[in-house]
Amino acid sequence: MHLDTFLLSLLLMLLLAKVLAQLCWRLGLPAVVGELSSGLILGPSLLGWVTPHPQLHNLAELGVVTLMFVIGCETSTKRLLNSGPRVLTVALSGVLVPALLIPPFVHWLLPTPPLEALFFGVALTATSIGIAMRVLRLNHQDKGVMGHTILGAAIIDDVLGVLLLGLMFSFSNGDMEPIGVLLQLVTIVLFLILAPIATRLLIYLLKPLTKQDMLPGFYASTVLLLICLFGWLAYLCGTPPLLGGFAAGLGISRHFTSPWSKWLVNPFPFTRKLEQASGPLNDVLAPLFFSYVGLSINLTQQSLTPTTMVIALVLTTLAVLTKLQCGLWLTGSRRQKLMVGSAMVPRGEVGLVFAEMGRQVNLLGDESFALLVLVITLTTIVGPVVLKWACTHPEPGEDTRGQSPPG
Prior knowledge:
Layout: H1 3-26, H2 31-42, H3 54-73, H4 77-82, H5 84-109, H6 114-123, H7 129-138, H8 145-172, H9 178-206, H10 218-236, H11 241-252, H12 268-295, H13 306-324, H14 334-343, H15 348-360, H16 366-392
Helix pairs in contact: 1-2, 1-12, 2-12, 3-7, 3-10, 3-11, 3-12, 5-6, 5-8, 5-13, 6-8, 7-8, 7-16, 8-9, 8-14, 9-11, 10-11, 10-12, 13-16, 14-16, 15-16
């Protein structure tokens, strides 16, 4: 992609994403729906003015890594750990129910070979962490109990989804290696534990530099360096780079706790400036990521016959219900249960990546791939709309303590 085309693509994506996000917000819809719609309008689905390209893809990925860094900065490690039982309940139900219930329907409706139908269901175990957390953050619900539950469950969902995909690929090749899958899981868990600690150690090493007269942009550059470093390390460990950004953000968080915290002075003034520097980066790059998700969807490739649309609506309904049930296992008000369930609904970029991987290794036929992309698109729009409604409509007399106050 030539520089002039690249710059024009960025101009169109950022401009339309901001305009539509503001319009959706004023209409009471999630801003992320407007950002996704900007990609659908500019991309091959409608106008065809902007074409998906690796350069745009990489910049968009940096956007979601930055978003997860900001979310990590605002996350309490202690509260996240205390949400353990709730997180595991939501995560396991969010993986097992779609993986078990969706494949029989796919096999019956299309029909497809059993292995292809099974992969269809596995791909729909995905949860878009970025989309869910952006809606929660814009509605000031990301720091409370429900926010931590959703965040932890979404992370586990995607880790389990990656492992299930690994098993599917091994099974399709006739080469089952459960030990390899187990080692991969251990590697990911160790990374999520050690990366925040490593980030904190780097903070203590960098803090003395702030006593000197630093050039402008020091804090923003430090944030970007941390995001790139731990995103790269996450990729090496076989986990999505966005988890690297989240882990680095945890190390910056004012809520960070460690065994040596009582002996070391809390570097809060330094980490606070890093948090503030990450805000403008996130405000620019995050909408670009969601616009690119819409750009990656090509609805013109879908065979939108009446039969296909009926099948797509049936499978989309099933995809929504198999995630909404996640909230039913928790105690709390009906609104809080709906918040958790709807936050797990959008498959977004994670689902698209899973679908593309299945097509590349011939686990998905052309018809199944096109249908899966359509279902992912619909869940990516429905989920945020329901989540926004749940965030903004507390029940009469509901106890909202432990949730973030409106800003």
